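Bumping with the actual sequence this time:
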Amino acid sequence: MSSSFRSSVDIDARKIHEYSRSPHGLSERQLSEVRDLVLSVQDDLGWYDDEICRLESQLLQLKSRRERARKSQQSLRSLLSPIHRLPNELLIRIFVYVCQDISALPTFGLSVGPFYVSAVCARWRLLALSSSKLWSNFWVRIRSGSSQKLEEAVVLCLQRSKHQPLTLTLYVQSSESHSLFRTLFDYSIRWQRVMLFLDSEAARFFNGQEGFDFPALESVTVAANYHDVPVNLDIFIRAPKLHTLWPTNANIELNSVVLHQITDLMYNLKRSH
């Protein structure tokens, strides 16, 4: 049926009312008339159902087209954003500045600023991957049960930072976390600034490391919330550029060779009660 359908049934509501109030019931002729009306109304209902389905389908199509148009408008408007007119060199500097806040957006134990930047769009991803400096400054928490995913993400940062000097903030907890800690030591020749937050188990592991070179290391901060295991700084005996040492609430053993080259030392002395 076409959308110009007109009801084939002309129902006299007054007659139906009279039939329903008849004191003697309906005659055969009246019953036959009612049956015919029921069939005709059924046909009309079928048409209405079909027409409603057709119109609802059209409405869904219109809504879908409207949504596509809205998204297209948003995409077009985004192209007018001033950031699209910034040169790549300036964008990279902005990215590096934002990602220097290594505490920003930590997830599963790692600061992930560069990962978020590289996930925005194709251009930003290319820029992020081309900037090794962007990946050279990160925060990582290494603890019991640290996932393989975390280790893979850290290694990815180390690889993407290429030959850049590294600025690391490492929170190391428990004796079960040394695999990733050891991986970071494999890149010791690129350590430039490092902050170490160690528990007693991590300090024991740290004290047992030797034979690493730190040719680029300039600054070390060591912090702890325990005093039973002193942190031995002998590991930094081959760090010729080391000039800044900040032991914060940590029991450390100072190596005379290391101490001789320190020009900036901050040491917190606490009275024992």
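The tokens above came from a reply further down the thread. The mean pLDDT is 83.
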